[in-house]
Design goal:
There is one protein chain. This protein has one helix spanning 74-85, and strands spanning 15-21, 24-27, 31-45, 54-69, 91-98, 106-116, 133-140, 142-147. With 152 residues, it is mainly beta. It has a single domain, classed as Pnp Oxidase, Chain A (Roll), CATH 2.30.110. Helices cover 8% and strands 49% of the residues. The chain contains one helix and eight strands; from the N terminus they run ββββαββββ. Strands 1, 2, 3, 4, 5, 6, 7 and 8 form an eight-stranded antiparallel β-sheet that branches.
Amino acid sequence: MNRLDGVNAISGREGRAYAKIDGNNEEMFFARRIEAGVEKTKATVKALGKRMAGHKTIGGEGKGTMSLYYLSPLFRSLLTRWRSTGQDVFFDLVIENDDIQSAAGTQQVLLTGVNLDGGVLALLDGTADDPLEEEVSFTFEDFTVMTPFTKF
């Protein structure tokens, strides 16, 4: 029987993320939080004699968000490139959980075809006591769980 001991809960601080853009690996040291998920697209299936509708999965969509410290020009440069050339930029993102205290081990997820929905160009906040942050949403085309957590 498996049980969760406190030491096996995954610490959100233990890990890293890398963006592969134009063949260069960029460590996302300025990220505070990254979350990516899949939203399934479903069709409603109605049938005579059934009061409840059924559902059939017919596709999916990858979406995510990043909370970043406002200090890197990386994503602003991608938006500038798109605006200047009309060529949108797609890149890969590897997100790794690596809490050495947990028996769950390391998990690595590869997101492919990542594309920014937009981004912050300039930011000031005279009332802020904390460092400036920006939220960036994105979509992605596919994913691979390269290294899954260990089943314990």
